[in-house]
């Protein structure tokens, strides 16, 4: 079940945004996209200042993504893949744990999902899309068997993607 605030912002459904690193990054991408949208619609003199600030935030977000990827490399908690249907379609080494909605595909591991966010951010390919069917991602959840923390989900308003 997805939910959103009156402002159309993403809302954590079952857990906090920080319980799954990829969900936090997705939320930050959403915020940056909203700022870019506001910059384009504004014709005031402050638009250049906001654009400069957004670019700085993008650089900071890229640094955070790199740091997260290093931590994921260092603390690899992934379970072994028991059957081919459970493996990540990107790296084929880890168990697919991130489920995208509305399509419902569970085909990527946490690390590959974070890399997908990184690529989308660097190439300005928003909204994020499922790596299998290319459908817009409006909600995420993480397989509860894959991590020690409780499962979580995030929902994004469709009209803002």
UniProtKB/TrEMBL annotation:
Domain RING-type: 88-134
Keywords: Coiled coil, Metal-binding, Zinc, Zinc-finger
Pfam families (alphabetical): zf-C3HC4_3
Coiled coil: 51-78
Gene Ontology MF terms in the entry: zinc ion binding
Domain of life of the source: Eukaryota
Entry keyword annotation includes Repeat: no
InterPro entries referenced in this protein's UniProt entry, alphabetically: Znf_RING, Znf_RING/FYVE/PHD
The UniProt record lists the keyword Cytoplasm: no
Name the record gives this protein: RING-type domain-containing protein
Biological source species: Holothuria leucospilota (Black long sea cucumber)
Lineage of producing organism: Eukaryota, Metazoa, Echinodermata, Eleutherozoa, Echinozoa
